[in-house]
Each structure stands twice: as structure tokens, then as C-alpha cells.
Design brief:
Amidase signature (AS) enzymes; 11-stranded mixed sheet; two-stranded antiparallel sheet; 19 helices; 13% strand; EC 3.5.1.4
Length: 539
Amino acid sequence: MAPRAQPPRPWQEVAKEAQEHRDATIFCLSPPAPSVPSSLPKNVTAIPNEVLNVHTVALTSKPPEELLSLLATGQVSAVEVTTAYLQRAAVAQGLVNCLTALLPEPALTRAKELDAYYQKHKRPIGPLHGLPISTKEHIGFQGLRCTTGYIAHWDNISKEDAHILQVLRDAGAVFHCRTTVPQTMMHLETDSNLWGVTNNPYNKNLTSGGSSGGEGALIALGGSCLGIGSDVGGSIRNPAANCGIYGIKPTAFRIPTDGWGYMMAGADTVESVLGPLSNTLFGLKIFMKTVIDAQPWQTEPALIPMPWRDVQLPRDRPLKIGVLWHDGNVRPHPPITRALKVVSENLKDKGVEVVNFEPYLHEDAWAIISSLYFTDGGEADIEAIDSSGEPWRPLSEWIIKDNPCVKKLTVGELSYWLEEREAYRKEYALHWNKSGIDALLCPVGPGVAPVHNTAKYWFYTSQWNLLDYPGVVFPVCKVDKQKDVWEDEGKALSGLDEDNRKLWDAEEFHGVPVGLQFVGRRFEDEKILAILEHLISDF
């Protein structure tokens, strides 16, 4: 007779253990991180500079390009920089709940190794020598837990480092902390029963975004200057925009993904990617170039063997940028439209040809991609949640149970949706060709960082996942309740548009970052970064 399976522990016990483990990794810091005020304001962005010492603030306020220069010339040590970022990341955790673990022991051990190498060889070990990098929790670390946000996965231990970590470590990176993820990994919000809710640093009533919201919040508070996120529907770009930082969703199969934790059955029907978030555009560029220069396709055969290219923008004609003012389904809130106008005018002032870009069946794109997200009808995710007894988070319920497109597909039905995907990609390519644009300027979402549990409109980011087009997010301005007034634009575009209008609150959103994205065609990652670098000085 087979032994009876042990019943799972109460989910509350597992969550308590997860949070105690996280807290223990912070408490072991030496010297201890400063305490944060017991009563916090809505906007906590100024607090790290108030509670940390001057030297820590100075180091963690430098952009990654300056830090790397100082590290490469021996003006600061890897231990100094790592110690500073460990302190600031701990403070960020106390402010917005963005960490699953601090990594002081392995980070400082690695930093000491790098300093010893520099002392011996009088040169950096690689292009990222001594730079602390944060990572999303589902990226596998040998010997550490990899839960992907599920209570049931608490005992999942990674057997080796993810490929991306191996590449970055060889380049000299120091991994100093791991950041929060949501239940199911399929939220534009970061909340789970394991670690709770991650708040937006600019307003605790709003979300930092998801699913890389821990990264977004941490970087916005200076607890990291470069982090690794992932994106299958907006999960890098959404937190970047919500938190006022930079992020890029690369074209699939350029950045290694081997060794990460991922739940979604049939995930290859929608290519999910890893990519960087940073407080500067340089951070995105150095990440992408370093990883691709390492030729990761030599050991991860699924990757495209495409070297990093230095792109020259056209000199015999002006750049031509399209502007997507809305997607035909939902008009963005006033600050998004204002940001589009501001950037469009700056582009024209720089001699760029700016044209209106008409959306092409974006609602159909959502029907296709949301049918391909859970090809098993969500069975694996449902089992992962229900097996532990943990409650369903509101946005997990929305994306799986309330989504009419989530169905268990037969082989024939799967083939149908894959054919629809390829047909739509071809149609959109022809639509883009007619416009003749070099890149597209568009919203990242239908508004700025939304109130918790209301981020239910993915079309402005998932559109480009379906097409596998790269998109780079950059900050433009902040919401101004005096300037951002809703203009009467007639009849609502749809029921979703009516719902989005109801979410607008000038008082609540005042002072929150506004970001936009440049989108390019497949494998034009270098091009959209070059365009943004060329134009960024005026934003």
C-alpha cells in the first residue's frame, strides 16, 4: 500500500517563513541598515537620502556609467559599492516591500574577489566589473528558492544558476538582491501571498507595476541601478513606466532564458523574454551589449546567433517616427496624451518627421494572445494555487478565471490560434510598411500607475509581445493636475474605454511619473535604443 501523501502546511505558515527568511537576510547586514519611519507618507522617494549616510547616498546616486568608470579605474572598490547598495536596497524594502531576499554574503564575497583581481591585474575583469545588479525572483540561483510567486513552489530549489546570471557574473556583475513577483507571474501588479503587495514609491495607493514590479520600485528608490526583469505581456515596460525609469523588452531569442522559473504551460506560443530595467538608458545598453557580446547562443542553441550591432541612423533623410495616439479601443488618460504631444513637438524641433500611426485591429491581437497565454486552460496555475490552499489574488482570478479567452485547447484549436498569430503578424508588417516609419512612439498603458488591483488593460504592451517587436520605455514627465484635464472627446471608443475613464483621478495621480515607449520591428533592438539616445536630451 502506497504511503499517504502528507497534507500541505497551512499556506499562512509558508508565507510567514518566506517573510521571516527575507527579513533575516536584511537583519544580518553589518552595519545594520537604518530604520525607516514607522509612519510613511504617500510618496517615499525622498526618504533614502534622509536616512542613509552621505557616502552611501553619494555612491548610490551615481548613474551606472559613472560607477563603472570609477570601478574600472580603481577609484572605488567593489566592496564599497556593493555595501552601499545593500544598505539602500534594505531601506527600499522597508518603504515599498520590493525584496524577496537580500544577498549580503554572496554579494560581498564576490565583491572581494573582484577587488583582489583588480589589485593583482590592475584592470577590471569585464565590462560590468563590480556593478551590483538586482534580479527578479524567478531567475534561478543555485541553492536558492525559485517560487514564481506560488506558495506551493516554496520548496523549489534551483540546481544551478540561470544562464543570464552566468553571463553577467563572468562580466563582473555582483548580485546583491532578489525582487518580488506576483502570484501567477501574470499581473501588471506585484502582489503575492508569499510576500504581500509592492507599492509604488511615488504613491503607496498605486501599483509599482508587474510582473517585474519589485525591480521597478527598487530601482526608482536607488536600491539598484540595473536589474533583470522579464516580459510576456508588459512585465518590464509597465513597471518601468509606472516607476519613472527605463526598461526594454528585447526581441525574443536574443537574451538567454535558460534556468528561470516559469509556470505557464505552452509558454512558447507567446515568447517571453528577459531584459533590463535601469535608472539610465546607458544601463539598458551596457546590459544588452554585454550579454550579446558573450555569444550566449554557443551554449543556449535556441538563441539567434546575432551579434550586437552599432546602428547608424539615416543621414540622407530625416528620421520618421509614427505616433500611436490611441489603440482604437481605449483612449489614454490626459497625462499620457500630454506626454505624447510633448515628445512629438521635441521630435519635430529636432528635424524628425512625425506622422500619425493608425492602429490596426489591436482588439484582435488581444483575442489571439490571451487565447495563447494559457493553452491548458490555466490548469497548471489553478493546481499550483489550489494545492496549497492559498487565496486567489484579484488579478490572478481576473486573468485566468474571468478571461473568456482562457480555454483548454485541442491540437486543432491550438493550430488555429497559431495560424491566426502568424496571419496577424503578416498583416501588421504590411500595415507598418505602408507607414514607412523608423519607429513608433506610443503609450505603455492607458494611464499612469493605477490604483492597486485595477491594472486590467494590457493592449498597449501585449500588442508588441504578440508581434515580437522590441520596445524601450523612458520617463517623460510627471502628472500635473493643473495641466492634465480630461477633454471631452465624444463617445467612448468601447466599454473598456468607459471603464478606463472612470479610473482617472487627477488628485490621486498628481506627481506620478509618466513614461512612453519607442517600438521597433523584430531585431531592431539596437535601432530603438539608438533613436532614443539621439532624442533623449530634450525629455
